[in-house]
Write a structure and sequence with these properties.
About 40% of the residues lie in helices and about 20% in strands. It has eight helices and eight strands; from the N terminus they run ααααβαββββαβαββα.
């Protein structure tokens, strides 16, 4: 199914049950997925550096499941729900329900993710900007650097004087302005980079 058919506010308004069921399938897929070596290596880096923060466009919660604690989710998290009326957020206990549950206020719960056509959560975006503008090193992993406004973050970091390193399978929109590109699979490259950093090389 085309995500743009079921991941918009309009689709939810038109057919909330269909949208809910599609997201339920995505949740079940996420819950069957395990963090990879890159997720675990980044969690290890956070344990070594107090100021280390992850900014992610992913909505799967795998960074947290790998052990990361300082995670800014600019696109939300599919394992949470948010009331479409009052905005109340719940760590979803509704995964198995066949229809979206109702909030105490009378609104309907929806997945706490950013759908097509929606703005990013203000608090998460402000925190992401603060981190980007204040970091010494900005590591881009597995992103095309073409989805806005998140793609602005590495440019903000660069303008503020950060050293930029990208890890990807090949060139991206950020390749022209990063300081170093390392091409390869994140699950192989990131652990090696983290090991080198922790060894002081």
């Amino acid at each position: 199914m085309d995500p743009e058919e079921v991941a918009t506010p309009e689709a939810f308004e038109r057919d909330p049950v269909r949208v809910w069921r599609w997201h339920r399938e995505m949740r079940q897929l996420v819950l069957r997925t395990l963090p990879n070596p890159a997720h675990r290596a980044l969690a290890e880096l956070e344990r070594a550096y107090e100021e280390f923060t992850i900014i992610t466009q992913n909505v799967d919660g795998l960074h947290q499941r790998a052990g990361s604690r300082k995670v800014v989710e600019v696109h939300g998290n599919i394992l949470r729900d948010r009331c479409s009326k009052c905005g109340k957020v719940e760590d979803s206990g509704f995964w198995e329900l066949d229809v979206p549950p109702k909030c105490e206020c009378g609104g309907v719960f929806r997945p706490d993710v950013v759908w097509f056509g929606e703005p990013l959560p203000r608090e998460a975006w402000e925190e992401a900007e603060r981190v980007a503008r204040g970091c010494d090193v900005f590591l881009l992993v597995g992103t095309s650097a073409s989805v806005y406004p998140a793609a602005l973050l590495p440019r903000m970091a660069k303008e503020a004087g950060a050293y930029l390193v990208e890890v990807n399978l090949g060139p991206t929109d950020a390749t022209v302005f990063v300081d170093r590109s390392v091409f390869g699979r994140a699950g192989e490259v990131v652990p090696a980079l983290v090991e080198a950093v922790l060894e002081g090389t």
